[in-house]
Amino acid sequence: MDELLHRLLHRKDFRQRYEQLKHEILSQREVQAFLREHRDQVTNVILERGLMKLYEFIQQSKNCERCPSLGECRNLLKGYHPRLVLHGNAIDIQYDRCPTKIKHDERKRQEALIQSLFVPREILQASLSDVDLADDGRMKAIERAEHFVANYEPGKKIKGLYLYGSFGVGKTYILGAIANALAQKKVSSLIVYVPEFFRELKGSWQDQTMNEKLDYVKKVPVLMLDDLGAESMSSWVRDDLLGPILQYRMLENLPTFFTSNFDLQQLAHHLTYSQRGEEEQMKAARLMERIRYLADPVEIKGRNRRLD
Q: Pairing state of beta strands 295-299 and 256-260?
């Protein structure tokens, strides 16, 4: 290659194009800054050998300047921009994550901390700052949520929230906003849509995975049970699924949040009577005691936003 380049350089037309390209490369502001920084190390020989690396650097840098988004990145390594370095006696390029890539990776990392079962994806984009504070209940919920996020520590006893109110008033959205705020503090959480989750557990008898799924929900750092009370209540659901989850989390000081269309009195009635009409007040009372231990009730009012 050196011999071929030597022969080409002696051709007048090639030599002219080469000198023109060299001039364009060396006139670039970033290249000049690099050469000034390493002026005591970069000899003419090193510079000549490194011209193609300098040319590659310029092309990739221009791509970064024109890049509209990570998905449309045109660099050799998508999401990485070049930086000139001197390795021994050679000019080289090191590729670092660009600002867009850093933001993208941070968002993905946060999304990985927010897990969900049967919850719409848009809920996972929620933010506490976007919650409508049109009524006292919402303001109280956000104040309590911000207090929780600020004071949460693994193993520390801290209560979650029991958010109750009519359909479509934004209870689940607030859960998503809390999960996002926790993710920014690198705290993992799980949002579970209760009716579908219990149906899933019922179907897990056949593949022997019920205990594994139940155990996972028990032990997640912050659990959010969405739409409690919308499930078809049976003694098995209450005593063998919901009861053990709440009992474990109460004993281990694992924060738990709830949403429901029922206030606590209505939920107690729901838990008391099974699908078969069986009345078991003591078992329902024990479950309600755990819920009150884990979370403080806050009523959320407002219009049904699903109709907007």
A: unpaired
